[in-house]
Amino acid sequence: MSLRYLQAIFAENGATPAHHLRRCRLELAAQELTEHRCSSEAAARSGFGDRATFRRSFGMSSSEFTRSRS
User: Is the dihedral of CA 37, 34, 58, 13 positive or negative?
Assistant: First the structure.
């Protein structure tokens, strides 16, 4: 599969491969935090380099997320 073809498939659905990857990482991070992993472990396991990058991408800290799920 060529890169152009892959981009065209995503474009048909109004997305990009980068957006899809980000969404998958954020979903994994939410799952990790729901399973009570510490924020640094959740960040690492979901592909974020550190907790600061994770927080910026996720839009809230891990403790804020945990409180919002209670």
Answer: positive
Q: Is the pLDDT of residue 17 over 90?
A: no
Q: How far is CA 25 from CA 1, 4, 14, 59, 70, in A?
A: 23, 23, 19, 13, 22
Q: Kindly report whether the global pTM for this prediction surpasses the value 0.70.
A: yes
Question: Which helix (H) or strand (E) covers residue 37, if one does?
Answer: none
Q: Residue 33 in contact with residue 65, Cβ under 8 Å? A: yes
Question: Cα(15)–Cα(6) distance, rounded to whole angstroms?
Answer: 11
Residues 34, 60, 38, 22, CA torsion sign: positive
